[in-house]
Design goal:
Largest sheet: 5 strands, mixed
Structural class: alpha+beta
Shape: globular
CATH topology of the largest domain: GTP Cyclohydrolase I, domain 2
Number of strands: 7
CATH class of the largest domain: Alpha Beta
Number of helices: 10
Distance between the termini: 52 Å
Bound molecules: zinc ion
Strand content: 15-25%
Radius of gyration: 21 Å
Order of helices and strands: HHHHHEEEEHEHEHEHH
Helix content: 40-55%
Strand order of the largest sheet: 5-2-3-6-7
Length: about 250
């Protein structure tokens, strides 16, 4: 079955829906019903991997493709004859589910935590990590950098350097709001490492500012989250911000 057939099939299976939601019988409706039954939140930046069964991602991609094709038709684009847009719905559906929103559908990347045997208790800074996300409001790109400050104690776990990037990417590959994204990264690292203090700083360009609206091309947004000792200890926070500013260049 080609992806186009799959898309048509997904579309046909939605035809004639009349039970509440306009597409009550698609695979997305099945997944949504499970989430609602479990009283689980499924906002744009929530991960729902636990509620998706094997084989359903392919069906979901076909459904999203069919609906995107409808959007293109609603934009009065001749997808049947315009060679440039014939495959657009398929490409965008794949990009959403497998790349830029994959952090909603994929389980958390495996991370091995190891005990702080060396009893490190010095401030550690990781970054800049490259951030690629999309804003929840317009689905426009958010491109930026992220820094992590960790203050370990003898009971903390440590994780490998590359794992910071993997975990951050899992959070960022969802439609996001920058303030919520940094808080989600902080929650995840707190849970994995349980450090004395944790600081996250994110600096990013929001392409909805460049592309539309005020077209303010220089606008960057910076957000930070401070937890534990970074909140309580002014000198630690200052040390972190000073090192960060050096690192930023
Ligand atoms: Zn936006």
């Amino acid at each position: 079955m080609t992806s186009k057939d799959a898309a048509h099939r997904a579309k046909d299976s939605n035809a004639g829906d009349d039970a509440g939601h306009p597409h009550a019988h698609g695979v997305s409706a099945r997944i949504r019903a499970r989430l609602e039954a479990a009283q689980e939140r499924f906002h744009a930046n929530d991960n729902i991997a636990h509620y998706i069964e094997p084989g359903e991602m392919e069906q979901l991609q076909a459904e999203v493709q069919a609906r995107l094709e409808d959007v293109l038709r609603a934009l009065v684009i001749d997808v049947d004859n315009d060679h440039n847009t014939q495959e657009t719905a398929r490409r965008v559906a794949k990009m959403y589910l497998k790349e830029i929103f994959a952090g909603r559908y994929a389980k958390a990347p495996p991370v091995t935590e190891f005990p702080n045997i060396g009893q490190l208790n010095e401030l550690m800074i990781v970054g800049p990590l490259r951030v690629r996300s999309a804003c929840s409001h317009h689905l426009c790109p958010i491109i930026g950098k992220l820094w992590v400050g960790v203050m370990p104690n003898q009971h903390s776990n440590l994780i490998g350097l590359s794992k910071y990037a993997r975990l951050a990417e899992w959070i960022m590959c969802r439609p996001q709001i920058q303030e919520e994204a940094v808080a989600q990264v902080a929650d995840l690292l707190q849970e994995k490492m349980n450090p004395d203090g944790l600081a996250i700083v994110m600096e990013a360009e929001h392409f909805c500012m460049h592309w539309r609206g005020v077209r303010d091309t220089d606008a960057k947004m910076t957000n930070s989250v401070m937890r534990g000792s970074f909140l309580k200890d002014d000198s630690l926070r200052r040390e972190f911000l000073t090192l960060l500013n050096h690192n930023r260049g």
